[in-house]
Amino acid sequence: MLCVKETFVYLNENLKLTTQALSDKVTPTDELEDMHHRVISSSLLAMATLIDILLGVKLKSNGGESANTESKSHLKVRSATLSSAEAALSMHKYFIDFLKSKSAAIRSATYTLLTSYIKYVPHVFNEEAMKILSSTILGAFNEKDPLCHSAMWDTILVFSRKFPEAWSYCNIHKVVLNRFWHFLQNGCYGSKQASYPLIVQFLDVIPSEVATEKFAIEFLQNLWAGRNQRQLSAADSLAFFTAFKLSFLWLLKKVPRNSVGDSSDNIHNRLITNVLVKIVWHDYLQLSLSKNLDTIPGLLSEEATTDDHQLSHKSLLVQNVRLPIYYYQDLGKCIVEILDEISVAESHLLEVACESLLRDYLDIVHQGEKLSKFQDHVDQLASFFCSLDLLVVQNGRTWPLENLARPLVIHSLPAIKSMDSPSLVKLLLNLVEIFGPVHLFLKYSEKNDDKSYVEPYLNVFNSDFVPWCLDGKHITCSSKIDLLLSLIQEECFFDQWCLIIKYIIAKQKRSVDDKISHTNDQFELLTLILQKVRERIAGGKLRNLQRSGSLPEHWRHDLLDSVAVSVFCDLPATDSHVHFLCAALGGSSQDDQVCFLSAEAVCKIRESILKSLASVLTTSTFEWTRSAHFLLLPAEHEHLKLLGEQSLLANFEMAQFAFQVFERSLFALRIHEEDSVFSHILAALFIIEWECSMALTLEEENDLEGHKEEIDAETLLCNSSDDRLGATVHLKANLAEHIHAFRQSLIPSFWNDLRSDTLNRLANILAQSVRYSVFDTRDLGIDRTAALCSEWVVDMLRLVCLDHIKLQSFYDILLSEREDWPLWVKPSLQNGHASVKFQCEPLATEETELKHQRFVAFVDKIVLNLSFGEVILGIPRNQHCTTSSSIDVTSPVSSFSRAWVAAEMICTWKWKGGSAFSTFLPSLVQYMKTESCPEVSIMPFLLDTLLEGALMHESSNWALFNVWHLSDSEIDKIQDRFLRALVALLFTTYTKERIWRESDALALFEKLLGSLFVSSTVNRKCLRTLPFVMSTIIKPLTEKMKSGEASSCTDLMGESILSWLNEAISCLSLSPREVTQQDIEDWMQVVLSCFPLEITGGTAKLVVKFDREISDAETSLLLTLFSRYRAFYASADPSLSSSGTSLSKTAELLGVKLTAVMVGYCCTKLGEDDWCFVFRILRKWIESSVLLVEEMTDGVNDAVINRTSAEDILEKLKLIACTPEELTFTFAESALVTLCCINHVDSLHESQTLQLIRSGEYAESNDKMMENVLRLFLASGVSEAIAGSCSEEASSIIASSRVVYLHFWELVASFIIDASPQIRGCALESVKLWGLSKDSVSGLYSILFSSEPISHLQFAAYSLLMSEPICEVSLVNGENPQESDMDQQSIESTPDSEKALCLRDELSALIEMPTSGLAKTDLIARDRVNVFVAWALLLSHLQRLPLSSTSRALLLSYVQDKISPCILDCIFQHIPLRSGSGGGASASGKKKDAELVPEAKAAAEASKNAIVTCSLLPYVESLWPVGVLEMASLAGSLYGMMIRLLPSYVRTWFTGLRDRSLSSSIESLTRVWCSPPLLLDEFCQV
């Protein structure tokens, strides 16, 4: 504290600083100026702070010597501070120069400093200082920066209070008030929130001689003028009106005291009338005088207060600017609070104010709609009364009622009733709600216990308000209903409600006025009243009704019930009927429980709704809807006839009306759902929508089929019915669309809240209705009906939340049996357990079978759309079985299982839109893979059921069953449906999907063994069934044995196979006459089924796999069996024996199959006699098939040569294609399998016996068989080529005949590729000598580009065309193998103009195909595939030709001249490249791979490999089956080979590209993938 003087010195020095003193060469000028302002303002504030602290803080007296010491020290500090402050004030001349600074911060700091001086150094303000400072401080209102206003106000108020005499040292009006008026006019220059609260304080410090009447006028005028200056925020508005209220009340209190020569009351009256009313009140009402009131100087003059009580129309102008809502709220609150204040202090002024307010209100009412904003004025008045209620009435004050509300009603009610203005009615409603109707309308009446006011009040209510409020005028109807309800009092509630109901019902319809629209329907009034009552009950807004009228039942009335029930008889119904019923019922939401009708009336309405909805079904053309109608209304059979006689339009109007009522009052109609009507209504909605969807589907199908009859006399008569049908569909669609939207809007909780019996009834009706629709629909196709009905079920179950038990009950009803379902497996109960009954050959009519097919297709669809476990087994979806107490896990099937349905489906086998293999069994497999309840298994039941059914029938011949190529199509050939179903089930689950259980297999196997013998007699049916079962279960069991997992099942099977071998051996005695061939066939079938062969491999090669590892005992028995069979065959073969016993074809076929098994399993054990027998059998049947095919080829050739017409040749070709004996191909196929086995084991084993078949006559025999196979292949191709010369359809007939024997031809193709050139040459020569109209090459091209392609044959044909010696003649027309090495000199001597290359027609047609059409085809289209394969042939041939050969030059010239390079556009359609794909030259391999999509990557790698290997063969081989990725690989290899062989051709195409992004991508791809191997190849050649 010892440095006070030094501090002041330092601050004074700072205050003397200038901008130049702070100058710095580096600092910019604007920064220097800002720095100077901060130094000055900070120094001023520091000085003010020093004064405040050192002079303003008083020390506490603690007593003692230390206190004296502190006191002395403090005195020294004060003395030093005072002297320094005085010196500073003098030095800086009262700091006046700082108040003139441009910096607001400096001026604000100066005001703060002056305030500190005035407070703590007042003695320095002598008379001289007063003269200087009074004008400056009191005239500071010219300060326009809001940042200074707070400090400025402090200075002014402190100065005025400290030195009241200072006012005399300045010109008050000129210096102070003039600037103050401008300050107010300009809204305090933006400091409203800071300045307005201080205005009253300023009024308090004004000298009394200044606060005159004139001052009051000018003050209010300028204050009011500044309210809307600049943007007015909510806080600004509140601050202003608070200041205005306080200022106005201050003036009322102060001005009379200081006025001279005027009556106090007169001044008060003028303030009330001319300010509060004509300015403030008019502004609140959004009214203004013809001149701007803000600028009238004589505001309180006599001229302005003339007794002109009425506001003329010209004097009321609407403001152009709409002020914020909070402005009017604050303004209204200001007026209310002023009136409330004067009501306490000066009641006579309140009367003056209220009279003026009433006059303005009545004048507004009088002018009415002439005022442009009449409604706004009335709304403002209503808001004013709300403010009165909130601020005054609720505090117990009565003056608003007595001085304003009641007089207002008395004087304006007739005018309000005559004007019928909504705004005025709402105002009246507000008054009633605020003050109460009795107090408002009955003058001198008070509510008391004697209720003497009730009768007069009822009279007023009945005479004045009921007729007026219910006159039905649209414009005020709603407001008047609100008013009428507000007039209802608790003491007379029932009387008033009864008056209203009776008046409405008795009211006669009036004519419509030209100018005012009237409501002609009593229902609209009732609707409006009930809706408003509901809103008030639900919202708890019935403040006037606490006991009577507070509950919905209080408002119920017999007249209401009768009107509501009669609505369904008053048709056609209108929207007003719907609205009325919905208003009376309620229930639009779950929370809306307000119903104004009795329970009896609600029940009657519900019944009427059901009947109306059900009437729609009578208009349907579908038979099943009649049955559904009977389900909904079983007792309305006679009513159905009456409904049928009604017009369609009437039925739909009834249904539409009923649905609208039900939709909008759903929860009210649900209250009494214990009866069946509610569930029937819900069911009717589903059924109506279903029927409509079926009708629309039928109409769409009819439109697609284009059934349009010609317009003749008959169709003209039918036109009216057609129009009627179209209108019906349109009406149905409209209704169904609304029903669908309604159903979708129902949340799950709605269904969960329904009673259990309601859901049961609903599910029952819907299940039966779906069944009726499936069985009885004839107009739609089976698959379309099934899909549609399954969609219904899925949609219904998704919406209706059924628990597990109800859901399974629904399925039980849905799938329950009837006359036409099921046909093969019927459920039954035996000893309380689920069982089945079999119907071997049900006596089913065509109609029964058709209905059965419909239902099977439907069951298949719902299993696909829902889940196998849920529909068939009754297992809850997404729920583990152990969590459901309803499932008995100790049982192999659940208590809800309908496994018999699965058996029926598999037995049915095929249906429209699906089959057991394509749709149903995949669903079963999917369930078994993901089953969550392994204890509940369907397989034992299905296997047991199907086996029992199979054992009741004679099985098919297993020998004809191609078990080595076991497939869906092969199983399809089994005739017996139970056996077929059993084999299909085993094949799917055991062989294909491998999801079998050993326990199931053991149980099945044991049952078979148990049924094989009845006593000691063989069960022939079981014996013939056994090989089919063994063929499917032996492979998975064999795999189990290979893994070393011994089990009871495998052990039992091994023992059984040995016993079956012995049985077969015992049947083959030495003399054929001593044995029944049937026994031989049956036991050999069983034995052969136990030694499986599997043919595997791809397009290029088929391989025979031997799936079992047999024991020595089995090998020994097999050898014995084969030896016995050879002897048996020799004795029965007419060429070998004269015994006279012929061998059956089946036994012979089994011998061929046995031969294949022996070669596969016992090849090393066979002797020379055995091999001799093997080769003789094979040659016999291969040659038979060759002979058969060549005969077909001769027949095709003759038919084409001798054809008379296109139709004739097609018929002949069809006859030829159907002629071949299937058995011949079956024998040949088995022979080829054996030959394949020989080739396979020949490459695996080395033994003395096998060396025999590799040389000598065995080798020759093998070559001869290979040649025959090749002849077979070429003959088939030539026959297709010959037929193709007629037409593509003819070619397709021949090609299709190969598809029938697909496995046979695949085996044929597998031998072609490995044939030696010598064998190929012999086969070609044989065909050439044949002398047919087409050669071998044409045949190969026919197979390669066949309309019925077989991938194995196509690759074989391609391989032959590319191999010696056929490649020499496969490219160019007219060349022979002998002429392939054409004389080079003769070619060179030929003139250039005559040199030309003529490709074969089959090749050139594809190579020269226009690319414009090809580019538009699908990426795997047959034409595109053929073109790519043709290019592969061409490029491969080009690669084979020597670089210097003339043929190569001609081929290159042909490509350059005749073939458009746009084929590369098609190639790159298969190689999707992104911008920059392939990476730069320096990109890493990983990076470039990552930038390519799979197709592009496959193509890039193929292009690289084709360049490196100079071969396209791998990509042609992998082409089939054709896919997008395979085509991309082939396209890439073609591109690589073209770059290698045809670089200029590719360059020509590339330079013509216009897509820069594509060309950049191709360039990048080529640079990364193709250029490196090309460069490497060139470097290697150097």
TrEMBL record:
<dbReference type="GO" id="GO:0005829">
    <property type="term" value="C:cytosol"/>
</dbReference>
<dbReference type="InterPro" id="IPR039795">
    <property type="entry name" value="LTN1/Rkr1"/>
</dbReference>
<feature type="domain" description="E3 ubiquitin-protein ligase listerin HEAT repeat region">
    <location>
        <begin position="1334"/>
        <end position="1582"/>
    </location>
</feature>
<keyword id="KW-0479">Metal-binding</keyword>
<comment type="function">
    <text>E3 ubiquitin-protein ligase. Component of the ribosome quality control complex (RQC), a ribosome-associated complex that mediates ubiquitination and extraction of incompletely synthesized nascent chains for proteasomal degradation.</text>
</comment>
<dbReference type="Pfam" id="PF22999">
    <property type="entry name" value="LTN1_E3_ligase_6th"/>
</dbReference>
<dbReference type="InterPro" id="IPR054476">
    <property type="entry name" value="Ltn1_N"/>
</dbReference>
<dbReference type="GO" id="GO:0043023">
    <property type="term" value="F:ribosomal large subunit binding"/>
</dbReference>
<comment type="subunit">
    <text>Component of the ribosome quality control complex (RQC).</text>
</comment>
<dbReference type="GO" id="GO:0072344">
    <property type="term" value="P:rescue of stalled ribosome"/>
</dbReference>
<keyword id="KW-0833">Ubl conjugation pathway</keyword>
<protein>
    <recommendedName>
        <fullName>E3 ubiquitin-protein ligase listerin</fullName>
        <ecNumber>2.3.2.27</ecNumber>
    </recommendedName>
</protein>
<dbReference type="InterPro" id="IPR054477">
    <property type="entry name" value="LTN1_E3_ligase_6th"/>
</dbReference>
<comment type="similarity">
    <text>Belongs to the LTN1 family.</text>
</comment>
<dbReference type="GO" id="GO:0008270">
    <property type="term" value="F:zinc ion binding"/>
</dbReference>
<dbReference type="GO" id="GO:1990116">
    <property type="term" value="P:ribosome-associated ubiquitin-dependent protein catabolic process"/>
</dbReference>
<keyword id="KW-0863">Zinc-finger</keyword>
<comment type="pathway">
    <text>Protein modification; protein ubiquitination.</text>
</comment>
<dbReference type="Pfam" id="PF22958">
    <property type="entry name" value="Ltn1_1st"/>
</dbReference>
<feature type="domain" description="E3 ubiquitin-protein ligase listerin N-terminal">
    <location>
        <begin position="2"/>
        <end position="204"/>
    </location>
</feature>
<dbReference type="GO" id="GO:0061630">
    <property type="term" value="F:ubiquitin protein ligase activity"/>
</dbReference>
<dbReference type="GO" id="GO:0016567">
    <property type="term" value="P:protein ubiquitination"/>
</dbReference>
<keyword id="KW-0862">Zinc</keyword>
<keyword id="KW-0808">Transferase</keyword>
<dbReference type="GO" id="GO:1990112">
    <property type="term" value="C:RQC complex"/>
</dbReference>
